[in-house]
Description:
Elements: H1 3-15, H2 18-25, H3 29-43, E1 48-49, E2 56-57, H4 59-83, E3 92-97, H5 109-116, E4 121-126, H6 129-137, E5 143-148, E6 155-169, H7 181-186, E7 190-191, H8 201-212, E8 221-222, H9 226-234, E9 240-243, H10 244-248, E10 257-259, E11 266-274, H11 281-298
Parallel strand pairs: 3-4, 3-5, 7-8
Antiparallel strand pairs: 1-2, 5-11, 6-9, 6-10, 6-11
Amino acid sequence: MTLNQLRVFLAAARLGSFTAAAESLEMAQPSVSELVKRLEETYGTRLFVRGGRRLILTSAGRELLPLAEQTVASAAAADRALRAVNALTGGVASFGLLRNANYYSLSNLLTQFHAAHPSVRLRVLGVNSVEVAHMVQVGELEAGLVVLPVDTTELKVLPLRRDEVLYASANPDHVKRPVTLADLAARNLILYDAHYGWRDPTRRQLADRAQIEGITLEARIEVEQTGSALNLVAAGAGDTFVSKTIVDSGTCPPEIYFTSFADPFFETVALVQREDTVLSPATAELARLAQLMLSDSANL
């Protein structure tokens, strides 16, 4: 059994004919038929039912299909990994960043990367973690940084940093003690990431906890940007919650006070990529640099 035989088998199974498989692989049709025939003869079993308008997999063919897909994908990954040994003299880095990346000392990430690798093209998107994870899953991005929890189906997840979430209010009475979910439900909440709402990973954690306790949480005001929410809190319009990293960044209005939650909870920042892919050299280097920056900022 050879990789060429498996590639031909997969193309024929996907396209339904040896002719179409030959065209997609840029091979002669007799060569495609012969490769499949030899594979069948080696194991003494038919892989396709022939004679109709479309090739149909036999039971043996159905057994082989997922294994062939895995083998061919692994070979392609190995090829990319070996090619990645070459120096970064071109290519594209495709990466997703947290919406609040600047608070995590990632503001200089692209500047440093470009200075070191000026010939590499950059495609970097800063969106909500829900969207970053989805774009990596469907192949629109190679990798990205997210806040958990998100849908990690078919993703490899590497947790990098754990960050406590704090309650924020301009009313000193609201932060005299750690805040409970009951407290949260009774107050005017100002929440950011309005587009994603309760799908946002941080909100999702709170919503899951509230559901267990039979508590309903609702936002009085929703905005897109964290800074906008904090400015409204400073003006006394309501309260919100933010990560400790944002609190420690020195960018929060001085009118705001902070406290922990009675049952502390955390944002976990993680690197995600597809399970079945090897990152391109450019994206792998950008991911490595992002990990270093997150590690350094966590140790400050």
